[in-house]
Amino acid sequence: MKLKFFPTTIFRKTPKVTFFDAGLETSNGCDVVIHSEEATSPPDDFKDEQYYVHNHQIDHNLVITGERKFVLINTSWDEPHHVIYLNRYMGALEIPIGTYHRSISGKEGSIVLNQPKRDKFFNPAKEFTPQKLDQVSLIKARKTPPVYWIYENNQIKRVNFDPLERKVKALN
Ligand SMILES: [Fe+2]
User: Fold this and answer.
1) CB within 8 Å of 71: residues ≥ 6 apart
2) What distance in angstroms lies between residue 59's CA and the mean position of ligand 1's atoms?
């Protein structure tokens, strides 16, 4: 499964100033999600992880400050479980319709700009209800070893971690 990242266009960068175009042509929304310190969206419900899953919205998440770990689960993908360590340089991560997703910030918190593409059936009262992994296929997918996406040497890399060999293996 190839995830999509939409790059930003940097206009100007000096030691203290970065000025870039974050616009996405396909988007018709502009949401900001601020984690002021360690936080998870959506939060756990007691011990159970919760996820968002959209029916009428494709997300495009761009980190503005900090780093945000995204977990994506989609049982229709050949690789159903992904963990993305998203930072600004990676651009906006696309989250397709039907993908269970949650995001986690470290102690510093993070600010994310989401520029979704919403269809005419979008209803905010229905689109943002946290969901548990309550189907066997989802629980199985969550247990499969994830594909990790990291930023290293100015590149987005897909890697998987082999716990037996205790090393990270680069994938294509
Ligand atoms: Fe979302």
Assistant:
1) 51, 81, 82, 83, 84, 101, 102, 103, 104, 146
2) 6
